[in-house]
Amino acid sequence: MENASDALKMGFAVLVLIAALSLAIYSFTRVRETSAAITNQKDIKEYYQTLSLEGTGVSSNVALSSRVVGVETVIPTLYRYYKENYTVLFYKGSGYNSDTGTFESIEPMIIYYTESNDSYLDNTTLITETSERGVYGFDIQDEQVRREPWSANQETSYNFIKSFVSGELSDKFYTSRTTSLSTHNEFKNDDDGLGYYYQIQFQFNGSTGNAGLIGNDYQFVERYGEYNYENVLNSSSEDEDNQTQQYNIISNITDSVDILENDEVVVNNKGTTKRVIQYILIN
């Protein structure tokens, strides 16, 4: 009898254990399903709105957001734009509503003026509509379209961003021209035998001088999304400085190309979706 009693107790314990395990599995399953449902309902793409990059008709899907960030968030993003190949855009907003994360209006903020030859500007996407040479963002492919001297490799691009972040003049970029095209940048000849050069004088929030991010308590609304950025590769040409160009890249909806640091051009057919990040200044 005693053995039978022990057997019944063990059987009952096993049943309780099975019931507890079943309840736990059911609970975890319900939590997972609920979490997935909430995630799907809050998919960031549901908040995408269409953003037209200035002057080109190229559209991107940008997520509405009420996330407010400081320069400590913006600076690391800038340092990764070359390597991770995404676009960073700057705007100035007015009438910001902190409850809804929306603005009465936003407009592109010029952050520097390009010295690129006129013939390259027709195919750039980041020149503001209200200026001939004012650039309001960073995008390595767009900079390569304009033949910007810092777009040749990651090191020169890093130095360019470093100058912008600190508010200093950029590196010296030598040219065969004798005058500035933008009239906003430093243009000199040190009579050292190397000829004329220019240095980009960065702008931010309409000012020069201490125009960088470091040391300023700027606040931005961060928005992000994606857009299609594709390029077509044309034959070589000669620019206005009589320098032979090995490639001619035009922003378009065709094929995508990658330019390696040794100027080798490789067609990229793996996809053309590109990340875009907006920083809208609120104060």
What does this structure look like?
The protein is of the alpha+beta class and about 280 residues long. Helices cover about 25% and strands about 30% of the residues. The chain has six helices and 19 strands. The chain has helices at about 1-40, 70-80, 80-85, 120, 140-145, 155-165; strands at about 50, 60-65, 70, 85-95, 105-110, 110-115, 135, 135-140, 175, 185-190, 195-200, 220-230, 230-235, 235-240, 245, 250, 255-260, 265-270, 275-280. Strands 1, 2, 3, 4, 5, 8, 12 and 19 form an eight-stranded mixed sheet that branches. It has a three-stranded antiparallel sheet with strand order 9-11-10, with no helix packed on it. The longest helix has about 40 residues, at about 1-40. The radius of gyration is 27 Å and the shape is elongated. The model is unreliable at about 35-45, about 230-240, about 240-260 and about 265-270 (pLDDT under 50).
Please identify the oligomeric state: single chain
> Secondary-structure element order, as H and E?
HEEEHHEEEHEEHHEEEEEEEEEEE
Low-pLDDT sequence parts: 37-44, 230-239, 242-259, 267-271
CA-CA gap between termini: 84 Å
Q: Tell me, what's the shape?
A: elongated
Helicity range: 25-40%
Gyration radius, in Å: 27 Å
Q: Which percent range describes the beta-strand content?
A: 25-35%
Query: For the report, how would you describe the main beta sheet?
Result: 8 strands, mixed
What is the count of β-strands? 19
Give me the number of helical elements.
Answer: 6
Give the overall average pLDDT: 74
What would you call the structural class? alpha+beta
Mind sketching the topology for me?
Elements: H1 2-41, E1 48-52, E2 59-63, E3 68-70, H2 71-79, H3 81-84, E4 87-94, E5 105-108, E6 112-113, H4 118-121, E7 134-135, E8 137-138, H5 140-145, H6 154-166, E9 173-174, E10 186-189, E11 196-199, E12 219-228, E13 230-234, E14 237-238, E15 244-245, E16 248-252, E17 256-259, E18 265-268, E19 273-281
Parallel strand pairs: 4-19
Antiparallel strand pairs: 1-2, 2-12, 3-12, 4-5, 4-8, 6-7, 9-11, 10-11, 12-19, 13-16, 14-15, 17-18
